[in-house]
Design goal:
Strand content: 5-15%
Distance between the termini: 88 Å
Largest sheet: 3 strands, antiparallel
Number of domains: 3
Pfam families: Arm-DNA-bind_5, Phage_int_SAM_5, Phage_integrase
Protein name: Site-specific integrase
Oligomer: single chain
GO biological process, one term: DNA recombination
GO molecular function: DNA binding
Family: Belongs to the 'phage' integrase family.
C-alpha cells in the first residue's frame, strides 16, 4: 500500500514526571494511519513551538537539536522512498520499525549470491575446485545482466524472486545470452542453490523453485573410433609442440583422466596394483573421489617417453602438460593434420576412454565407473552408448549361432 507520508514532532506531556522537561515523539502518518516513537530526547516544554514543531531560539544547543529533528525526518523519508522504489508494502509502523532497526533485514538476490561466491573463493582447493567457482561466478554475472535488463535496477530483494522471475531468467539466457539448453539449465540450477540458502536461513518464506524442474536434453557425446585413434598414434609430427600435445591427448584417451587430473599427476600416483602391474591412483580434482586405473601399454610408452623431459623433473610431474586453452588450440591443428573432422578437446579423450577403449571392448560398466572416479553409476551410464561396431560384432555372433540351424529349410518344408 502506497500513500503520502507526514511526520510531526510533539512533546508528550502525559506520563512525564517533570513537566519542565518532556520527551519528544515523532508521529508518522500514512493514509490516515499513525505510528509514534520516542526520539530519545527531552526538551523544556516552554521552549517548544507547536506551530513549527521545533524549539524556539537561536542558541547553539537549540540549533543543534532542531538539526537533529531534521535528520530524523530525512532518515524516515529515505526509508519510505526505498520502500516505494522496491515496490514494497509500506505503512507507518513499517517505517517506524525500520528507523528503530526492528525490521528484518531485506537481503538482495545478488547480495546473497555474491556472499556465497566469496565463501566459495575462501574454500578454493579445500571444498571447491576453480572450475566450480568459475561456473558460479558466470551464473552470477548472467543473473546480474538479467536483473538490469528486466527490472532496470542493480539488485532486487530475494523475497521477490518468484516462478515468473525464474522462468524469465531461463528465457533470457536462451534468447538474449544465446546459450544452449543444457548450459542454461546449469546456470538456473546454480541460482537454485542460492535460493535454497535463503530459504534455509528463513530470509524467504517459500521456495520459488517448488514448481520448477530441470529438464536436460540428451547430448550425443562424441568420441574417437579405433581407426581415428590409430590415425593419431601413427601420425609423425615434426613440430615438437604438436607431438607433445598429441601424446598427452592419447594418454587421456587410454586412462580416462580429465585434463586437470593429468596436469597434477605425479610419480606418487603410480603404484603397484593387486595384479602386480602399475596402476594410477589419484583423487579427482572435481569430485575428490578415487580413480583406480591399470596402465595400458600405450600409456606406459608415453610416460617413458617424457620421463626425462626438462619441465617434468623440477615439480615431480609425470607429463609436460600445457594450459588447457593452449592444449585445445593445438588439438584443432592436430585434427586438421590427421584429417579428423571431430572437435578434439581434452574432455573428448575421457569420452573416448569410456566408450571406444573400455565399454565397447566388453569392460563392465562398474569397472569403468571405478576408473573414471564417478560417485554414481548413473553418471557412467551417460558414456555407455552402444557403438555401431559393437552392434556389428554382436549381430555377427548371432548370425553365426543362427547359421548352425537351417531355419529356411524348415520354413520351406512347412
Amino acid at each position: 500500500m502506497f500513500g503520502t507520508m507526514n511526520i510531526l514532532f510533539y512533546p508528550k506531556k502525559k506520563g512525564a514526571k517533570n513537566t519542565e522537561m518532556v520527551p519528544i515523539y515523532a508521529r508518522i502518518t500514512i493514509n490516515g494511519r499513525r505510528s509514534e516513537f520516542s526520539i530519545g530526547r527531552k526538551v523544556q516544554l516552554r521552549r517548544w513551538d507547536s506551530q513549527s514543531g521545533k524549539l524556539r531560539g537561536t542558541a547553539l544547543e537549540i540549533s543543534n537539536f532542531n538539526r537533529f529533528l531534521e535528520s530524523v525526518k530525512n532518515k524516515c523519508f529515505e526509508i519510505y522512498e526505498n520502500y516505494l522504489k522496491e515496490g514494497e508494502r509500506v505503512s507507518a509502523s513499517i517505517i517506524k520499525n525500520a528507523y528503530l532497526g526492528k525490521s528484518k533485514k531485506v537481503y538482495g538476490t545478488l547480495e546473497v549470491f555474491k556472499n556465497h561466491n566469496d565463501e566459495m573463493q575462501s574454500l578454493l582447493g579445500k571444498d571447491y575446485s576453480r572450475g566450480t567457482l568459475q561456473r558460479y561466478q558466470a551464473a552470477y554475472n548472467h543473473l546480474q545482466s538479467y536483473i538490469r535488463y528486466s527490472l532496470r535496477t542493480g539488485d532486487t530483494p530475494i523475497h521477490r524472486v518468484d516462478h515468473k522471475f525464474i522462468t524469465g531468467f531461463e528465457y533470457f539466457l536462451k534468447t538474449k545470452q544465446k546459450l544452449g539448453h543444457n548450459t542454461t539449465i546449469k546456470y538456473v540450477v546454480n541460482f537454485k542453490k542460492i535460493i535454497r540458502i535463503a530459504y534455509a536461513n528463513e530470509w524467504i518464506k517459500r521456495d520459488p523453485f517448488f514448481y520448477w524442474k530441470a529438464s536436460w536434453k540428451n547430448k550425443n557425446r562424441e568420441c574417437l573410433t579405433e581407426s581415428e585413434l590409430s590415425l593419431l598414434a601413427e601420425e609423425h609430427f615434426e613440430n615438437k609442440r604438436l607431438d607433445r600435445v598429441r601424446d598427452i591427448f592419447l594418454f587421456c584417451c587410454y586412462t580416462g583422466l580429465a585434463y586437470v587430473d593429468v596436469k597434477k599427476l605425479k610419480k606418487d600416483n603410480i603404484v603397484i596394483g593387486i595384479d602386480g602391474k602399475r596402476w594410477i591412483k589419484t583423487y579427482r580434482n572435481k569430485t575428490k573421489t578415487l580413480s583406480s586405473i591399470p596402465l595400458l601399454s600405450i600409456a606406459e610408452i608415453i610416460l617413458k617417453k617424457y620421463s626425462h623431459h626438462s619441465t617434468v623433473h623440477p615439480y615431480g610431474n609425470l607429463l609436460p602438460v600445457p594450459t588447457n586453452q593452449k592444449t585445445n588450440e593445438y588439438l584443432k591443428e592436430i585434427a586438421d593434420v590427421c584429417g579428423i573432422k571431430k572437435n578434439l578437446t581434452t574432455h573428448l579423450a575421457r569420452h573416448t576412454f569410456a566408450t571406444t577403449v573400455t565399454l565397447s571392448n566388453g569392460v563392465p560398466i562398474e569397472s569403468v565407473s571405478k576408473m573414471l572416479g564417478h560417485q554414481s553409476l548413473k553418471t557412467t551410464q551417460i558414456y555407455a552408448k552402444v557403438l555401431d561396431r559393437k552392434i556389428a560384432d554382436d549381430m555377427a555372433a548371432l548370425r553365426e549361432k543362427m547359421g548352425k540351424v537351417n531355419y529356411y529349410d524348415k520354413i520351406v518344408e512347412v
